[in-house]
Specification:
This protein has 208 residues and is mostly helical. The chain has a single domain (27-54, 73-207), classed as Four Helix Bundle (Hemerythrin (Met), subunit A) (Up-down Bundle). Helix content is 75%, strand content 0%. The protein is built from six helices and no strands. It is elongated. The N and C termini lie far apart (94 Å).
Length: 208
């Protein structure tokens, strides 16, 4: 029986081996940008629903009767300041100062949590006064849009906590830096959406 011996003295040429390409390092950021674009479509649809149904009160309370603009201004300031604070955290990350970064992230998370708490309080007060989401098409569209944004902020806070724990355990390695940059984009994106909510849903809604 003939057998083929393996020639160990003369290894195969370099061209014989297949080189495995590493995935592009910016692939995560590109994928996250695609996710943000899909989120834009979701919020655009909810804004469109509110534009159509914003004056369908069905004999119920109007926007001017249920919205507390001074309280909403405070809530808006909390979210905007949290975005600025998150920017400070990213600057500290670039300087590789983990302790300062974690401190700013904690402040940003607390401000965002206060925002969500005041938003829940607003929902409870409106529902207790008979202005719940089932009262009219206007209120249904309002609750859906604002609650969707609030859910995103809540998920962002949970994500922030996870990344803070990972940064404490593993430091500012390449993976954690990439994840923090993605969260930063998400955080600022939610602020931009809220500016639209406050300007169009609340301010223009009161003037309708």
């Amino acid at each position: 029986m003939n057998t083929t011996a393996v020639d160990t003295a003369h290894p195969a040429p370099r061209e014989f081996f297949v080189r495995v390409e590493e995935p592009p390092r910016n692939g995560t950021l590109l994928g996250f940008w695609i996710y943000l674009m899909s989120d834009c479509f979701i919020f655009a649809s909810l804004f469109a629903c509110n534009a159509v149904l914003g004056t369908e009160y069905a004999g119920g309370p109007t926007a001017a009767e249920v919205f507390d603009l001074p309280g909403l201004a405070v809530n808006t300031a909390l979210l905007l300041v949290s975005s600025v604070v998150f920017g400070f955290a990213m600057l500290e990350m670039a300087r590789r100062r983990k302790g300062a970064m974690l401190g700013w992230l904690a402040v940003a998370g607390l401000l965002a949590a206060a925002f969500v708490g005041l938003e829940i309080r607003e929902f409870l007060i409106m529902t207790a006064e008979g202005a719940g989401p089932g009262r009219s098409a206007f209120l249904s569209s309002f609750f859906t849009l604002v609650a969707t944004h609030g859910l995103h902020v809540t998920l962002g806070i949970l994500w922030l906590i996870v990344l803070m724990v990972q940064s404490i355990r593993f430091g500012l390695n390449e993976a954690n830096v990439r994840r923090l940059r993605c969260l930063s984009m998400f955080w600022h994106f939610l602020d931009l959406v809220w500016v639209g909510v406050f300007s169009y849903v609340y301010l223009i809604g009161v003037l309708r």
